[in-house]
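Long-time lurker. I teach an intro course on protein structure, and each term I like to show students one example going from raw sequence to a predicted 3D structure in token notation. This year I'd like something fresh instead of my usual example. Would anyone be willing to generate the tokens for the chain below so I can use it in lecture? Attribution to the forum is fine with me.
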Amino acid sequence: MIHKSNNKTWPTVDLTTYKNEPGTWQDVSRRVLFSSPDSLFETRYFELAPEGYSSHEHHQHEHCVVVMRGEGEVLLDNDWHSVSEGDVIHVSPHQPHQFRNPSGEPFGILCIVNRERDVPQPLGNQQESDTSIPRTSEK
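-- Reply from a regular --
Happy to contribute to a lecture. Here you go:
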């Protein structure tokens, strides 16, 4: 199997709804690039439009995230971190996290996760109430 990329759009891969919980996320698209009943993992590409954000959540499964496009921020536990293309983020089991795009350009992330996994637990939206959360830059 090969999915050819056209500027991170993968025309042969369906664009799907990110989640179905209104008000917990904004302007996020999702493509499942690889999933197979014979594999233990799944590879997904999420793109956050300018001012978009994912849900603030935690879950039992860990995942690895690679920034593929643009710049954004990730909330891990209680700290926001600036991330950009090529950066790798490990989200540990039960670690509260959220992604957001404060830039004017698309922010795309590749997420590798267990194919069979638990349901994320929402934690409330930190995007709207982040004034008390410090920003950390690791660059």
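Some talking points for your students: The CA atoms of residues 65 and 111 lie 4 Å apart. The radius of gyration is 14 Å.
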